[in-house]
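Re: that chain you flagged

S.,

Sorry for the slow reply, it's been a week of failed gels. I finally had a moment to sit down with the sequence you sent. For the record, here it is as I used it:
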Amino acid sequence: MLKICICDDNPAILEDLERIVAEWIHRKGLMAVVKGVGTGGACFNECGDWDIFLLDIGIPDISGIDLARKIRTLRHDAIIIFITAYGHFMADAFAVHAFGYISKPFAREQIDTVLDDCPGVCGPSAQPALCAPPLRVWKRDGGDGGYPVFRAEQPENHRRHGGPSGGGQGQD
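Prediction finished late last night. Pasting the structure tokens below so you have them in one place:
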């Protein structure tokens, strides 16, 4: 299952990003969890070894650049995407091997495009475990500290590689 963590101290931006990412996951039919957090400490402590990070640079408790360095100690292969109003940190962002850098204000299409381009998500080099058939059940659960966690789940009659029950080849 793909795990995406979003860190931004602005609650309105955090909510927008959570919605955009959740809708992208739904359109792609991925099995994924999205968690939004408002501090770098919470991001690292709760999601430090996750797959994809969308990080603001100007968060109060730790800079997004320093947070990315900490994340790299746990996951050298994590995909880190900065979404920030600070253009002058671009060189620092790429020094921590950021996959993307999006300036605020952002458009949905920018987020969709950078997520579409992430290696291994559902492109030619994708890991089969992340690319499930389209999902039909979409749940929004309460998360830690009031932040929502989005979960996409397959219905029981939907086999992983064979589509609806009774019609597929590969089964788990």
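What I noticed first: Residues 2-154 form a domain with the Rossmann fold fold (CATH 3.40.50.2300).

Talk soon,
D.
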